[in-house]
Amino acid sequence: LVLGPELQALAGAHVSIVGTDRAAVVDAFGHFAIEAVPPGVRDLHIEAGPEVAGGPYASLGFRLEVLEGQENELPGKQPVILPRIDVGSALPVSETVGGILRTSELPGFEAEVLPGSVTFANGSKAGTLYITVVPNKRVPMPMPRGLFSNVEVAMQPAGARFDPPLRVRMPNLEGGQPGEKFILWSLNHGT
Length: 191
Prior knowledge:
Blueprint: E1 2-3, E2 14-17, E3 23-25, E4 40-47, E5 60-66, E6 80-81, E7 91-93, E8 99-101, E9 110-113, E10 118-119, E11 127-134, E12 152-156, E13 161-162, E14 167-169
Parallel strand pairs: 1-6
Antiparallel strand pairs: 2-3, 2-4, 4-5, 7-11, 8-9, 9-14, 10-13, 11-12
């Protein structure tokens, strides 16, 4: 199942196996099936752009193992829930342009993007980044066992890589004391 943040089916979303011509379109009930996928470890990409009602939604890529001769299911056997993209957070970047990513959904959050530090999934150094707060009951895929957070954010588009890494500032939602350290997790469903 491919659903939106209100658990509605994202009819018209595109699902594809990266590096192949294998793809499907999500139906009115949120279902999809991709036929004749070569066995092995495969990257699945799900995208629901502005053409999908209520969109655009965050894209998602993740890795799965396709076994020959059987019906394969998504990891965790749970629906994939795509959050709606906060288009107000748009930050165009390139080799010569960086900036600060912010979202009104999480006041105090900032991610500094240096010029030339982003490589998008297609290899380009120019594009637009977005940051979206994801309700923790609506994360796109199951979190690793034992991992929990009061706030999750999704960096879009999926597959963007940063070198050097982003400098991130988070609001003190936990009520920590000055100098107290907290763990910040980065989760890439595709690896």
